[in-house]
Design a protein that fits this description.
Length: about 120
């Protein structure tokens, strides 16, 4: 099971990225991009496998979105827009990177536990 800290980080990263992209793409599309990550982190305690799958798929999709679209927006419009726009986009990129590292660490920890031979647990 993914820790509460990582789940809340995923929800925060998804919401922040959605809010950061509303001015450029509209609220519906921005929330749709982050919805898998937010939904997966929300349902993971009740549905562990489905939640982990949604978190991983949502993180991959959000990472693709942030690195491709936001980075291109920064390169294209960074000089013409306000500093606030650039800071929000950079904060979104850093938050998604932090979230991805935390999710990857949790997945490695879970997979290591799953691969421990079952004989160790027999008494």
């Amino acid at each position: 099971m993914i820790s509460n800290r990582t789940r809340w980080l995923a929800i925060g990263a998804g919401l922040f990225t959605a809010l950061a992209s509303i001015p450029a793409f509209g609220a519906g599309f921005a929330l749709f991009v982050s919805s898998f990550l937010i939904l997966g982190a929300s349902v993971q305690p009740r549905f562990p496998r489905a939640g982990r799958g949604l978190i991983c798929a949502g993180a991959i999709w959000l990472t693709f979105w942030v690195f491709d679209i936001f980075t291109l927006m920064l390169l294209e419009k960074g000089g013409t827009n306000s500093r606030l726009f650039v800071l929000v986009m950079l904060a979104s990129v850093l938050l998604v990177v932090w979230c991805d590292v935390a999710i990857a660490a949790e997945e490695l920890k879970i997979r290591r536990i799953d691969n421990v031979p079952k004989q160790l647990f027999r008494a």
